[in-house]
Amino acid sequence: MTDTAAVTDWQAWQRSWDRQQEWYLPDREERFRVMLDAVEAVVGPEPRILDLACGTGSISDRALRRFPGATTTGVDLDPALLTIARGHFAAEPRAEFVTADLRDPGWTERLPHRAYDAVLTATALHWLRSDELRVLYGQVAGVVREGGVFLNADHMPDPATPRLNAADHAYQKARQARAKAEGAQDWADWWQTAARDEALAGPVAERFAIFGNPANGDHADGETQSVAWHVETLRAAGFGEARAVWCSPSDAMVLGLK
Ligand SMILES: C[S@@+](CC[C@H](N)C(=O)[O-])C[C@H]1O[C@@H](n2cnc3c(N)ncnc32)[C@H](O)[C@@H]1O
Questions:
Q1: What pTM was estimated for this model as a whole?
Q2: pLDDT at 216
């Protein structure tokens, strides 16, 4: 670790990531709570958790605060977000992080455990295309132990309600504009701030080489699917039960029970 990294306030970076994500998802903490309620209900209060596409490790953070006996493995491809995660959890022996591309056929071989009680993910799998996500769900089914649980909270619009979708979209845009006028950072702003940070500039440059620079409008080429698609695909992947356990007008959380 460099001297700069040693003095960087990683907790502050974790908090600023959370604020930026909340600009998009004001109910983000509520969805984490529902997610962890389902984990506790299905596998109990000492879960071994895989935090898929973990970013800075927000789900791991909530899980480790709530469950003293939990352990977490976070997987992500982004060197900058993983730098924040590794800094934030430097003194936390229950958390570990793995660099891997979830589109890589061999990514599960990098995990420190063969099986997990719970595989959790939020606001991430829409970065993948449907064919890639179908393959990933098959791999996840191989990593969740029998009786274990998978939870994915993400954008899952319902094409059957176009007027509601349009009204919600307009409402969210107005809310975001008000928050921005009060100083909130969106995705592109946050990344430009991170790029200017001495300790993060290198990992952010690597990140831009992998995913592109949000200042140029770059984002992943993924797709969103309906709740019905997720449920059907989880069942086909080998989950015995699958259904939505939470929803908002634009997003939902699907659960698969092995
Ligand atoms: C919006 S962030 C959400 C992070 C975290 N789950 C949260 O709620 O704060 C989406 C994450 O998906 C990760 N991601 C996207 N595509 C990926 C891939 N192919 N392999 C691994 N991680 C990926 C990104 O690097 C990013 O950390």
A1: 0.96
A2: 80
CA 169 to ligand 1 centroid distance, Å: 23
What pLDDT is attached to residue 256?
Answer: 98
What single letter denotes the amino acid at residue 65? R
Burial 148-175 (b: 16+ CB within 10 A, else e): bbbbbbbbbbeeeeeeeeeeeeeebeee
Among 32, 52, 12, residue whose Cα is nearest residue 190: 12
List Cα–Cα distances, 29 to 26, 52, 103, 176, 248, in angstroms. Answer: 8, 17, 28, 17, 13
Q: Which CATH architecture has domain 3-184+217-257?
A: 3-Layer(aba) Sandwich (3.40)
pLDDT of 220 reads 64
Sign of the torsion angle spanned by Cα atoms 12, 62, 28, 187: positive
- For the Cβ of 53 lying below 6 angstroms from any atom of ligand 1, the answer is yes
Which tokens in the block code for residue 72? 């977490």
- pLDDT of amino acid 7: 82
21 CB under 6 A from ligand 1? yes
pLDDT of residue 222: 84
Given a cut of 50, the residues of the chain with pLDDT beneath it are: 1
Going by C-alpha positions, the residue among 211, 227, 208 that lies closest to residue 219 is 211
Chain-centroid distance, C-alpha 196:
24
CB 103 near ligand 1, within 6 Å:
yes
The percentage of residues in the chain with a pLDDT greater than 90, rounded to a whole number, is: 93
